[in-house]
Amino acid sequence: MISDKQVSLLVLSNGHGEDKVSVSVIRRVIDLLRYLPLKTSIDVLPLVGKGSSYKSISQVVNLLGPVKEFSSGGFVTHRPLVFLRDIKEGLLALTYSQFQTISKWSSDRVGRKLILAVGDIWPVFLAAQSRIPFIFIGTAKSEYYVRDERGPLQRRNLLEQTESMLSSVYYPWERFLLKKAIAVYPRDTLTCLYLSKSGLTNVKYFGNPMMDDLEPSGKLVSKIHASAFLSNVLQHCHNYRIVLLPGSRQDEMYRNIDKLLTCIKEFAKENRALFLLSCPSSASAKLIDPIICRSGWSSSSNSEDIMEYKLASSGLLVSFEEFSDCLHFCSVGVAMAGTATEQLVGIGKPVITFPGDGPQFTYSFAEAQKRLLGESVFFVRNGNQVGSLLQELCELNTSWRKKFVANGTRRMGVPGASMKIARDIVHIIQSISDNDQAN
Fold it and tell me: Domain of life here (predicted)?
């Protein structure tokens, strides 16, 4: 057996959701590499934001920089004014620094090198220009944006309709770069099919890593049953269990919470329902509490550790740690979020969405998300339409719910993709190392 073979891996990811996908895959790569006679160093470079998701594996990976959070959050597609604002805030300087970081990494690291690009075509471009072998997990683009299994989607104008008629959602120049990759892992079977039809022979579909690590912990149910008020609401609310997803961007999230609570206020008064407001652990309880109280809810908790509220016969529980539990426990979602909405649909739940002020969850983003996720998403133009839709969705029969499960599986896949992709990456690392030894 050959030992002491050196392999260096650089991870490029461009977004909060992409960072989470990277962590899910890399954690499993690290576990698999423990059993191999390889010296492997792993560095990560978040291209958008500060890469906070990587903190969970900071003991086994090196976080490179520079990193910076822009006001756009990286959501600049079809928004030239937002893009110009990012440039004013230092986008070009950051991009140049990231080029330098990748170049320095390439010259400093010893042994064979491999780059894992995660997200859209930007990290692919950076990987390709470095002339280092690379692989790609495509999270941002899907054929479902432009077509489904029946054919091209009807779009809003001629330009968009032309996009739907192209041979692939990946443009020709993007496919040119993808052909340089050792392996391309698309997010769904439809995208895999059309990339293969376009001439790519390096495409492998193993599923969508977004659907991994979503097993419920049971903590949410325990927290509900520990409250006399919430357990009573749960006992009588039947399918009126609704999760509210405001997103994870701090500045936008608090505005979204206000909008979500406004749109469900009358519904909460007229029905007995249990609402779960799922917030990231980084959110501030001190900022959230006054928003909830201004919306007409009153605190029903005797403990500072539990944020529970009452409005008429309905209950509201704020969750900071039980995201997966909320997704599984609810019957319906009302969302102004990106990845979280996709995951809720993947689990098989219907979701109502409506646009906010951005920078992420704008009209264009929400409309595109509807195309991506199909019949499981009920996209409305404003929050005034949410109440009546909630009434209908909470009363849906089993056959309808089975349709949502089938649609979620088709568009988002089943759990297990992270491990399958990790195994393939480790196989590629072994091949690179073996080639190095042979040379």
Answer: Eukaryota
